[in-house]
Amino acid sequence: MEIRFEKVNFQYSGLTDTTHALKGVDLKIEGTGEFIAVVGHTGSGKSTLVQLMNGLLVPNSGVVNVFGFRLPAKRNQKINELRQEVGLVFQFPEYQLFEETVLKDIMFGPKNFKKTKVNAEERALEAAKLVGLDDNILKSSPFRISGGQMRRAAIAGILAMDPKVLVLDEPTRGLDPQGRREMMDLFKEIHEKTNKTIILITHDMDLVSEYAKRVIVLSDGLITFDGTKEELFEKEDFKDYHLSEPQTIKILKYLEEEIGLKFKEKYTYDSLLEYIVEGEHE
Amino acid sequence: MNELIKIKNLSFKYSEKHETIKNISLEIPKGKWISILGHNGSGKSTLAKLLMGLLKADEGEILIGEEEILLTEESVQDVRKKIGIVFQNPDNQFVGVTVLHDIAFGMENQQVPREEMIEKINHYANLVNMQDYLHKGPHELSGGQKQRVAIAGALAMDLDIMIFDEATSMLDPKGTEEIVDLIKLLNKEHKKTIITITHDLEFANLSDELVVMRQGEIILKGTPEEVFKEEELLKSSNLELPLALKLQNDLKHHNFKNKDKIMEALWKYGLKK
After folding, report:
1. CA geometry: angle at B270 spanning A236 and B151, to 5°?
2. Which end of chain A has fewer CB atoms surrounding its CB within 10 Å, N or C?
3. Which of A146, A176, A276 sits opposite B251 (nearest CB)?
4. Looking at the 3D structure of chain B, how many domains does it have?
5. Is the pLDDT of residue A27 over 80?
6. CATH number for the domain running over A1-77+205-241
7. Out of B235, B243, B257, whose CB is closest to A282?
8. What is the ipTM of this complex?
């Protein structure tokens, strides 16, 4: 089971001009076990790409195939079922909360997808637990909890639908550093516990380097790189992508230049710390 | 040194139960760049709103400018001729139909003569590098461009003090860089007093002095070098050191080859401006 793009074109038509957001994109993403970062500058087509994955947008030409659902859809296909498989968390998802209580808000998705009420509540409670919201908060109005909790509630609402794939559009934007770390550790935990594929849109190369396995780089509607993060960061022509290097690499390069510490690629904070402590660089 | 802002024993609460600002005192000297740091909900944005007179303090006082105007409902219009703010969301503060109208908006309210207004619009649009976009509407601009327009509009009022309330947190890296460069320019070349509100220590590292808030109180104050030594206090306000300094701190508990050299290099790297 997988997500497959075949020669997908998508354009936004304005009054006077047309913007080609995606140009002939081919792509294959496994339904389980992937942790993918989608990077690229504003306007490169990142959001368009993920909105095509759950039928919010339909290709102008080419085919998107999501776990057997084909887009453009055939008449008898139920797009609702597709939306349940690909859980999309938008930027600042807390702006979309609207119910009387946090619990009702989290239940909204599963209820809408024709789960029974009891079942929906069960799933909501499970999702709330997963994102670390306690019972007190579930009874509160979603507008009377902190910003970090609001975001957790919004994400729980998506998780409660038990999607196969979780797509996150800049999920840490606007959070304080600890909130950011907790949020990312949460996704990592979900990924490790459930083996769900996670697709993360981000501008933050430190998040890419710390968490992602695979990176897709978009530029002007084209996929210009698709491979492991190691392959990307170690590419000779990495500069040409106009992406910044992760902090861990910058620090190691500085140490080499300044005090002659042997450079070796390290992508996570823990591996960087270990490298220095073990002194293999001698 | 003469202070442009004097905050004395300021307190404020949104509701009876929860005090948001607890007895804060702070002085901000002319021409300095101060960063106010803290976790989400620490009161840092509330403090900015109090300084702008958008909220009214329950206790304490705020004095603005060299003439020390006491901020009250009567004086708030005078205070806003000295102090301006750029908020987080670029879409929430663009009021004009075009860039030109947006920059003019504040001046229109102050009934600045037309000739002078045109001159100022051109001057400040140039300063923020938006001179080629004067007739564009907000939907044709990026987030960073909208923030630059907001800055031009504020500058056109001849302000002495600019507050940036997480003004880059919704921008992409390029937009962020543009705004950071502009803040540097305003502070260094144009001698504006700058207050940036942020939870990014890497960014705050650029400023002269840091003020760290936690649950409505100031828990730490000093130069970046002084503040970065207090990792535990920073952690208690949900803040994280720049990565090189965090690494340096964590390495303290380990023994390894060339420790002194590596520690010194990391500290230097972490503090570089």
Report:
1. 90
2. C
3. A276
4. 1
5. yes
6. 3.40.50.300
7. B257
8. 0.83
